[in-house]
């Protein structure tokens, strides 16, 4: 695992957007797995700016969702489908055909989960999967004690996650669904490159446990330790609990520019 400590979220967004642009220069139809929440927004803004400046052609890029709420009405502005269309697909100038996600309003949710795993495989697998981290260490919506081998499936949110996400629902926890579909940890680990961005002091404990703690289902993000190409990008506040912070800084400073992340 590589840990990169950046000064702030804008620098993290720029670094990761450049990695995505570099991927698209090498593989124009790359399948980009995107995450929701506040943290990745600087990535999407930086990538859209690169497209607008013609630094990269993203016209053949494909985008896929990490997770989704179950039971929100179609077109609800806070469904992750709506969020990804608004924050990623439209700013990149892509059409909806280049986008895929699990069907959170399916009558048969279990079948929708199996179908999504199959669709990801049939699309050739995810080339680069962006991840955030929950304050309880979740990735996607894999809450603590999710199987490290899990596939896309329905999960029940913890109270903490519903409290954290209430800000997207007018601060009203009653509006936050209890159930979600999420790529499983086993599914996520099949992506060719995992890139987790964490910013702010509220993430410092979860980051320290994920990066330096034992591999544990209790901290789902610790599963990145199993992946051969995982990059964790953190700002100074989110890095505050890392014992090896100086080592991570020195290692990245000595890295040749051409190597990227
Ligand atoms: N399912 C999403 C996660 O993918 C995201 O990482 C997390 C953190 O969000 P934020 O970046 O807003 O802190 O929120 C949600 O629970």
UniProtKB/TrEMBL annotation:
Identify the keywords attached in UniProt to this record, alphabetized.
Answer: Allosteric enzyme, Carbohydrate metabolism, Hydrolase
Q: Hey, which pathway is this one from?
A: Amino-sugar metabolism; N-acetylneuraminate degradation; D-fructose 6-phosphate from N-acetylneuraminate: step 5/5
Provide the Glucosamine/galactosamine-6-phosphate isomerase domain boundaries.
12-226
Q: What does UniProt list under activity regulation?
A: Allosterically activated by N-acetylglucosamine 6-phosphate (GlcNAc6P).
UniProt-listed CDD domains:
GlcN6P_deaminase
Q: Which GO terms describe its molecular function?
A: glucosamine-6-phosphate deaminase activity; identical protein binding
Q: What is this protein called?
A: Glucosamine-6-phosphate deaminase
The record lists the organism as Streptomyces pristinaespiralis (strain ATCC 25486 / DSM 40338 / CBS 914.69 / JCM 4507 / KCC S-0507 / NBRC 13074 / NRRL 2958 / 5647)
